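Hi V.,

Quick status before I head out on leave. The structure for the redesign project is tokenized and pasted below; the design run finished overnight.
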């Protein structure tokens, strides 16, 4: 991105979208670590204490009841799966975003593939568990993937004056 300074709204939107993905990756790593060190019973107790007041006023509160139901269904294996999922997803996202912010050409196609895999998975999840939040995340991911593709084409058409070996291949690490 430093090869071509953001010149229009879409360039700036790409930078903001990628930065948000990086911040999301950091939050996922933090969440994954927390899931590894906090027991399901502690999570359940924390959710109960956080939702208690709201449920005393409105026993049918949508968010509070869903949080409580999700926390009560946690098991050791589901928490481990969630932790590993968040850690892997977060680390990959952080690495790709850092590479994109450093103008590593190889990272563009990998980010597109990474986002595409999760777009497909999120669409699959929505077929049996529709969610406005997941739908919004999926739309955001599609938009960021498109912006990444657009930026990749732009970067390839204006190569760096002194390319590093392997940068131009698009898929090389």
């Amino acid at each position: 991105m430093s090869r071509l300074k953001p010149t229009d709204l879409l360039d700036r939107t790409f930078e903001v979208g990628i930065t948000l993905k990086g911040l999301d990756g950091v939050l996922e790593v933090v969440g994954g670590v927390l899931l590894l060190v906090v027991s399901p019973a502690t999570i359940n107790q924390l959710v109960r204490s956080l939702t208690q007041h709201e449920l005393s006023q409105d026993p049918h509160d949508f968010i509070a009841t869903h949080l409580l139901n999700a926390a009560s269904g946690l098991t050791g294996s589901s928490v481990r799966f969630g932790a590993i999922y968040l850690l892997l997803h977060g680390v990959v996202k952080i690495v790709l975003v850092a590479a994109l912010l450093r103008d590593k050409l190889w990272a563009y196609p990998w980010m597109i593939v990474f986002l595409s895999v999760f777009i497909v998975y999120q669409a699959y999840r929505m077929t049996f568990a529709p969610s406005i939040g997941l739908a919004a995340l999926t739309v955001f991911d599609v938009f960021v993937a498109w912006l990444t593709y657009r930026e990749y084409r732009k970067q390839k058409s204006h190569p760096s004056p002194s390319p590093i070996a392997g940068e131009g291949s698009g898929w090389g690490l």
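Above is the designed sequence. The chain has one domain: 9-157.

G. will cover questions while I'm gone.

Best,
W.
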